[in-house]
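Working notes for the structural subgroup meeting. M.R. asked for a predicted model of this chain before we commit to crystallization trials. I am recording the input and output together here so anyone reviewing the notebook later can reproduce the run.

Input as submitted:
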Amino acid sequence: MIIEIAAGIVAVAAVVFVAFLVPVLIQFRKTAEESAHLLRRMNEDLPVLFREAAQAAQNVNQVAAEMREGVARARVLGEAMGEIGETINQMNGFARSWTGRVLVNVSSLLAGFRAAYGVLKEKSSSSHHQEGGGSNGG
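Returned structure, recorded in token form:
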């Protein structure tokens, strides 16, 4: 009788084990199917994603190249503007020195005219005094 009871307990345990194991196996099968579906989808989507990533990398490289060209052009423009500024500065210095020389020459010329006029005026007034002095005294 003990063997029958032990056999009954083993049978009940086997039924409980199978009752527990069946839902676990069903869930495991669903998980495996979803994993297989996910892997198939990834195999379909990954090449597209890789192509898009490669295209994005090409676009970034193209933008970087265009930016390098733009910076090079801006540098050339900046250098040209600097040279223009330097030329203007040189012309300004030339104009200042030329104007200064002209003003010095004109003022020297005027000083010479003034001195010559002073000498002529003095000679003229001294000759009037000598002529007038001789007639007044005589």
